[in-house]
Every structure is written in C-alpha cells, then in structure tokens.
Amino acid sequence: MSQRFITTKERAQENKRKKRLLVALTMVIVAMVCFVAVLSHTSKSSKAEELRQLTEAVNRCVAHCYSIEGYYPESLDYIKDNYGLTYDDDTFFIDYRPVADNVMPDITIIEKGGDN
User: Fold this and answer.
1) Helix 76-83 vs helix 8-69: crossing angle, to nearest 10
2) How far is CA 44 from the centre of its chain?
3) What is the pTM of this model?
C-alpha cells in the first residue's frame, strides 16, 4: 500500500507502534547491560573470596606445622606434601619466603592474570 493512501489516524497508530517497539528494545538492552554488570561484579567478588580463603588456608597450614614440628616449613612444597595444601596454581601464585625456623615466613599470594 502506498504512503499517500494512509490516513492521519493510521499514521499516528503506526508511530505509536514504532515508539512502543523502541521502548521495548531499549528496556531489553538496559536489562542485558544490568545482567552483564551483575555477572562481572559476582565474578570479581568470587575471586576475592577465593583469594581470602587461600590466604587463610596457607596461614593455617604454616601455623599448624609450627605448632606440631616446632619450626616453620622451609618451602611451600613441604606444606603441600605434608599438610595437604592444594590450590589452583594456574590462577594463583604464592611467593613463599622463609625467614628463620622460628619466624613466620613472608607469604604473598597474587592472582595470575588478574584484571581487577
């Protein structure tokens, strides 16, 4: 049907439909953006919690070793082998530097490839 045979009322109705469609599409896009933002935040929170739990686990194993053996472990491998420490070494790097038998080692845990 040609545009010159459309009445003013029909044109107004068509414009209303277009506006409703535009509003609906805008709402869908806003909802998707919000969903992605929430997922991103949840992922970052999850990684932070994972890092916190790993830090606690390493410190607990080190303290446990000291309380049982009377000295701090000489290496991270010793903790893994004798105290059951496990973690995802593709995700986290643990820098373990012993100071002395009776001094808490310097422990730094870093998320690999972290873009926080």
Assistant:
1) 90
2) 3
3) 0.65
The beta strand positions in the chain, using DSSP E, are: 92-97, 106-111
What tens digit of pLDDT does each residue of 55-81 get? 999 999 999 999 999 999 999 999 999
Cα distances from 53 to residues 26, 43, 50, 99, 107, in angstroms, run 41, 15, 5, 23, 14
Distance, CA of 24 to CA of 12 (rounded, Å) = 18
Residue 109 pairs with which residues in a beta bridge? 94
Dihedral over alpha carbons 75, 79, 80, 84 (to 10 degrees): 180
